[in-house]
Amino acid sequence: MQRGVAQLYGRGYTHRQVVQVLAAKLYAHEREPARRKKLARLRLQKWMRQEEFRDEIFAATVMHADGQVGEVFRGLLTKAKSGRVDAAKLVLELTGRYSVGPDQPPSTVVVQIGDGLPRPMPHYEVDGVVEDEAEDG
Q1: What is the mean pLDDT of residues 87-106?
Q2: Residue 45: pLDDT band with limits 50, 70, 90
Q3: Where are the alpha helices (DSSP H) in 11-120?
Q4: Within its chain, how far is the Cα of 36 from the centroid?
Q5: Residue 88 near residue 80 (C-beta atoms within 8 A)
Q6: Percent of the chain with pLDDT over 90
Q7: Between 97 and 79, whose confidence is greater?
Q8: Residue 123 in 3-state DSSP?
Q9: Does residue 131 sit in helix, strand or coil?
Q10: Alpha-carbon distance 79 to 82, whole Å?
Q11: Whole-prediction pTM value?
């Protein structure tokens, strides 16, 4: 179940949407919808404290973003065709047909996703007070 929830977060579902899905899957036996949501929220808070679960969310997010690169480039092409000079220059630069200066070769664009990026730290709310995980240690 954790893997499925991590995939939902990776696809960009909001926390509220994830709570609704989790409440329907795990707590369908509860009669009161408010109770189902509360139990789902508590379960998610417990899972968010686990580094492995946060790692799984991060990996799912990277995988989802990687799958969107083609659409991003199509969007960039659309903007370039509509007359956006900056988009046109970037497309031409990425394809090696434009360089910034006469003496410079085309630039290399590197999009780094993964180990080089800092991971976000979770925040917990206890009785209306928000605490960072880093402060706990």
Answers
A1: 77
A2: very high
A3: 15-26, 33-48, 51-67, 69-81, 85-94
A4: 26
A5: yes
A6: 47
A7: 79
A8: strand
A9: strand
A10: 5
A11: 0.58
Amino acid residing at 78: T
Chain position carrying tokens 């080089």: 116
What's the gap between Cα 13 and its chain centre? Answer: 9
54-83 per-position pLDDT tens digit: 999 999 999 998 889 889 899 999 999 998
SS3 state at 125: strand
**Distance in angstroms (rounded) separating the CA atoms of residues 36 and 9:** 19
Q: What is the CA radius of gyration of the chain?
A: 21
DSSP 8-class letter at 126 = E
Q: In whole angstroms, what is the distance from residue 91 CA to residue 109 CA? A: 11
SS3 call for 136: helix
- Cα–Cα distance for residue pair 37/30, rounded to 1 Å: 10
